[in-house]
Amino acid sequence: KTELVTQYVSDRLKANPAVDSVYISQEPAEASAVARLKPKQERLSRGQFENDMRQVLRQIPGARISFENQGGAGGSGKALEVTLRSDNPAALKATSDALTQEMRQISGLVEVSSSANLVQPEILIRPDVQRAADLGVTVRDIASTASLATLGDAESDLAEFDVGDRQIPIRVRLASEFRNNLSTLENLKVLNNQGQLVPLIAVADIEFGSGPAQIDRLDRSRQVTIGANLDGITLGQGLQQVYALPSFVNLPAGVSQQPSGDAEIMREVFSRFGIALATAIVMIYAVLVLLYNSFIYPFAVMVALPLCIGGALLGLMIAQKPLGLFALIGIVLLMGLVTKNSILLVDYALMAREKGIALRQSVIEAGLTRLRPILMTSISTMAGMVPIAMEWGAGGETRSPMAIAVIGGFSTATLLTLVVVPVCFTFIAQFNEGIGSLLRRLTGLGREEDSDEKPEAIATGVK
């Protein structure tokens, strides 16, 4: 049945005009189809392709179809992943099943599946240790005999089949009709320590059953990965709803949860983003202190930093793009770009002050003189980001949030910098002059200068 379903899926994929080629990998209980899409300019977006194929493949009875990101970071390859761990297989299975059912009720999560739900037929052999010991048979002997008969033997010293320049190993095992025959398995012969052949049924109980298709472990504990794809919501919104589910909030004793896949990456990115942002701000401040030889005037430049962050978030919200890794990279990039406009204003105003121009007039001249270069550099920078924001080229969907964050942050920062920075510079300059005047009064430097000038004035008057 798996082969028939796989062939049907392959035919439907090949019939889609967006598909260039299809590669099929099949196992007894599941199969995977890797579809290579045509160039972006010749097809619809990947999201539209998935929606179209999802409607077609949903009609297959008894089959669970899901789309995965090839080379994804997590165990399921899906956009949202939750991993449960426990040393109690029964509790882990019950919890994962309950959480899977609750996640399927969340609108915005599609193709919810659990690695524990995939089962495959298996042969259950339970050795009777006491009987085996009496007959001189070890558990290892039982396992070796069963493995040889069902899985086969492909040792390096066995004969190989030559096909041109390749050698294909020959696997020796029972034929399929005998592997599925309980009587044949029960009469398999096991060699004991005395060289005698003992029937397998004499030392073990044998039956057919089913079990998990895979058993994942981490640090010797079993783990189950529940994955889902997103439909109209972001990863953060999906995780917020999953974390509020009753089965997740009330995890039984012995069952723990840990982030995995893109969720784990997002957690690490956000935890380290604060450090990266703080480091960028400190470095910018240090450079400005060296440039202006002042600890106060750099604040007039750095007041533009909060303005760009608000614009970046607003741009992402309007474009409906997630605040992911590339968006955060764009925000860090903005830290250095927006300070450029502030530096142009503050630097010109300080030079005007050194020439003896009044504070208000120096700020006005700085705005009038630097307006054109500020607008030219800002517009050229945003124009250079437009192709990336428009998702042109391969992988454009991934890089688009970075460009949108830069364009949104630069737009608001450029407009507000022309107003906020001059105002802040005026207050900081007045504060700096007031502190300087106060220090001169406290140290008496002003009285010493006056006393030096008065004798000269008296002498002149005498003449």
UniProtKB/TrEMBL annotation:
GO terms for molecular function: xenobiotic transmembrane transporter activity. The chain crosses the membrane at residues 273-292, 299-319, 325-350, 371-390, 402-431. Keywords: Membrane, Transmembrane, Transmembrane helix. One of its GO terms (cellular component) is plasma membrane. Pfam families: ACR_tran. Signal peptide: none annotated. PANTHER family: ACR FAMILY TRANSPORT PROTEIN, PTHR32063. This is Efflux RND transporter permease subunit.
